[in-house]
Amino acid sequence: xxxxxxxxxxxxxxxxxxxxxxxxxxxxxxxxxxxxxxxxxxxxxxxxxxxxxxxxxxxxxxxxxxxxxxxxxxxxxxxxxxxxxxxxxxxxxxxxxxxxxxxxxxxxxxxxxxxxxxxxxxxxxxxxxxxxxxxxxxxxxxxxxxxxxxxxxxxxxxxxxxxxxxxxxxxxxxxxx
Length: 177
Description:
By secondary structure, the chain is an alpha+beta fold. It contains four helices and five strands. It has a five-stranded mixed sheet with strand order 1-5-4-3-2.
């Protein structure tokens, strides 16, 4: 049975929302494009998991500025995107080199790789809400562990669990820090 016009419109809406999320990852998170914040982020933006950050574009702008001052050569690999209604979930892997103050740590020059999950709430082609989870303990270990234990921190740690968020084999991240 062919799709109805309503079903086709809903599918088009979901694909457009996924493209907004993809553009946020690429243009804001990876490239740090300031103008993309005005284009892709609503003035009513609410960040739920970036730590203390005021709502609206300026809080995100400041957070992205700090992040980009702390890391170099960021790479984000999107593994999956799932859209339903006004939400888009993105599972991805992130890698970058720690070259400036980042998350309160002075630069180490070490490259890290972590798995992340993002959920974007999208309305009228702009992100109005954002949730983000990652294994902060794993990130901190990669940036602070003794370099002698991992060959000097010169490479990207091997992907754990095939890049899938939530896989914990041979890891001790069950402890909450």
